Task: inverse folding
């Protein structure tokens, strides 16, 4: 039950992109097409979960025993950078077409604040290892969900030509994102 | 000296990180529920940006190409932690409000982007000015956004209530951040176009 | 132009950078450590004096911790001229709209609520954040009430608390946190003191200090 609450809260109520504003850059940058977004979402789910687990272990078995919690930011970002590199190498071998499609955005997962943000948040929330893993996974799914929904909306938007000139590009994308965020606020009452 | 000022002005207008380059959106949207929060976040980022730009421009030539990015990230992370600790010690209230978004300056694309595209190719002095310009541009954007959201959402200016009442709460909530930014971006583009035509 | 990359110079560069960064951070940490700690203690003490009548001890020296419902409740006993002046209880609830929030509840020696302050919360601005006494009078209605006779639940559920309009969840969670604080205070502090009184013990400091 507790895990279900964590999942619903992370995916819908406190959606990582639309309510917590983590990972906005790829959200606005990559989400032109549904297929690319799905690939990016998958990569982020994977990296996010792995990163949260590894950083949990680092925090509790290295930083706290040695009393060097102030090294948190540096060590976490290094671990995330290494993980991304790994995913990149694996993806290059396993699925060259997806690798091509994700292009420059894959290295950008390193600077996706959702990854570092969720790692730090699960430490701050005092989650144990299992909770951390579920929390990270759910947030990854929340990210992918927002990304894919948004990409779908933007594909439709490209088909309509009557967007006012001044609003073309980012402004209209931001308005759409705002409407999506409003829709997600409707989930607010679900958990308790 | 004129050159240096041009670098700064370029950072604020022509290459404004928020309105033109569309970088660093997470803190832009998340920390601007009031003008003061936006201002402090902008200044903290500007501070990190100047220090990291300076350091990276000095050591760039010593770093092998393949480990360039990890090296930059470590340098940036170190400065971010310095800012984090200093703020926790001397500005505890602001530190508490900005919370997780201080360590997240590390992954603010602006900082790494400037390290990679400017500081690694330019001299120390130019890099500081670039950091200052981009940092001020970012601060300006965040303060404007915070100002607008606070004004509409709480009827306040820098924490001072103008009239009683709750305001349009939507602007303090998440969707309002997107809407306010969209309209500010349009406004910025119109002003810039007029400016350039002259 | 950047240098050629070889395994040796790559490792060396990364090691040097990491080492120098760590050294700098350790230095800054040492420099700011005392100030951060002072801020923390000052924050606690300021919070305590906000919710209690004047006292002359240092409550954070005598803090008493109790682990309940998955987290810790802190009791900061205050004394004035050697007599109990009540206690500030740092309590929490997990039922807030935005999850957990933390309150500091000041109880007088007889269990009457003196004042309540919000330490941290993530309730919705403009709605649930009215639990903060700076934002609305919601938390003021608890002042001077004794939970023995004052039912800590919202009206809708048969209690005595007037909920915040459109924020029943936050209001209920607030009651939950205050009730938890009162439970700990009554069970562990008031009863303890009563027992001390019966057996004629004069110092209650030791028992509070377990």
Result:
């Amino acid at each position: 039950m507790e895990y279900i609450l964590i999942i619903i809260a992370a995916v819908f109520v406190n959606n990582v992109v639309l309510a917590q504003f983590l990972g906005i850059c790829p959200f606005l940058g990559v989400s032109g097409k549904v297929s690319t977004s799905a690939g990016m979402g998958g990569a982020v789910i994977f990296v996010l979960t792995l990163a949260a687990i590894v950083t949990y272990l680092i925090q509790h078995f290295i930083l706290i025993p040695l009393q060097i919690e102030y090294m948190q930011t540096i060590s976490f970002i290094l671990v995330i950078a290494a993980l991304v590199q790994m995913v990149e190498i694996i993806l290059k071998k396993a699925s060259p077409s997806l690798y091509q499609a994700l292009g420059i955005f894959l290295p950008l997962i390193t600077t996706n604040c959702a990854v570092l943000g969720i790692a730090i948040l699960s430490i701050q929330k005092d989650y144990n290892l299992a909770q951390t893993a579920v929390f990270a996974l759910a947030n990854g799914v929340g990210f992918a969900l927002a990304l894919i929904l948004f990409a779908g909306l933007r594909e439709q938007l490209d088909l309509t030509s009557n967007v006012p000139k001044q609003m073309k590009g980012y402004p209209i994308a931001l308005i759409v994102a705002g409407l999506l965020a409003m829709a997600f606020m409707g989930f607010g009452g679900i958990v308790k | 000296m004129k050159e240096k000022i041009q670098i700064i002005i370029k950072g604020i207008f022509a290459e404004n990180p928020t309105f033109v380059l569309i970088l660093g959106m997470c803190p832009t949207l998340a920390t601007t529920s009031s003008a003061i929060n936006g201002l402090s976040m902008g200044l903290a980022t500007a501070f990190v940006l100047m220090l990291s730009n300076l350091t990276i421009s000095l050591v760039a030539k010593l770093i092998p190409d393949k480990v360039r990015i990890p090296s930059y990230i470590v340098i940036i992370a170190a400065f971010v932690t310095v800012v984090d600790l200093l703020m926790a010690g001397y500005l505890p209230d602001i530190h508490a409000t900005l919370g997780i978004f201080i360590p997240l300056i590390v992954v603010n694309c602006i900082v790494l982007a400037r390290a990679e595209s400017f500081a690694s190719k330019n001299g120390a002095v130019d890099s500081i000015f670039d950091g200052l310009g981009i940092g001020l541009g970012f601060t300006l954007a965040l303060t404007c956004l915070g100002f607008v959201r606070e004004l509409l959402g709480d009827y306040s200016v820098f924490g001072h209530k103008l009239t009683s009442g709750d305001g349009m709460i939507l602007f303090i909530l998440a969707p309002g951040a997107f809407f306010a930014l969209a309209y500010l971006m349009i406004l910025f583009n119109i002003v810039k176009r007029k400016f350039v035509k002259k | 132009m950047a240098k050629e990359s070889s395994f040796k110079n790559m490792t060396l560069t990364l090691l040097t950078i990491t080492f120098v960064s760590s050294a700098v951070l350790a230095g800054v940490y040492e420099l700011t450590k005392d100030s951060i700690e002072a801020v923390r203690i000052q924050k606690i003490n300021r919070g305590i004096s906000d919710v209690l009548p004047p006292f002359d001890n240092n409550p954070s020296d005598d803090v008493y911790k109790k682990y309940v419902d998955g987290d810790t409740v802190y009791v900061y006993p205050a004394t004035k001229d050697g007599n109990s002046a009540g206690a500030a209880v740092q309590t929490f609830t997990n039922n807030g709209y935005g999850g957990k929030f933390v309150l500091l509840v000041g109880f007088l020696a007889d269990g009457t609520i003196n004042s309540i302050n919000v330490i941290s919360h993530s309730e919705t601005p403009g709605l649930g954040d009215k639990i903060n006494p700076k934002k609305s009078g919601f938390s003021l209605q608890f002042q001077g009430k004794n939970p023995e006779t004052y039912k800590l639940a919202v009206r809708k559920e048969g209690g005595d608390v007037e909920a915040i309009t459109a924020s029943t969840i936050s209001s209920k969670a607030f009651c939950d946190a205050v009730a938890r604080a009162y439970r700990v205070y009554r069970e562990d502090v008031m009863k303890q003191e009563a027992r001390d009184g019966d057996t004629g013990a004069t110092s209650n400091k030791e028992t509070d200090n377990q």
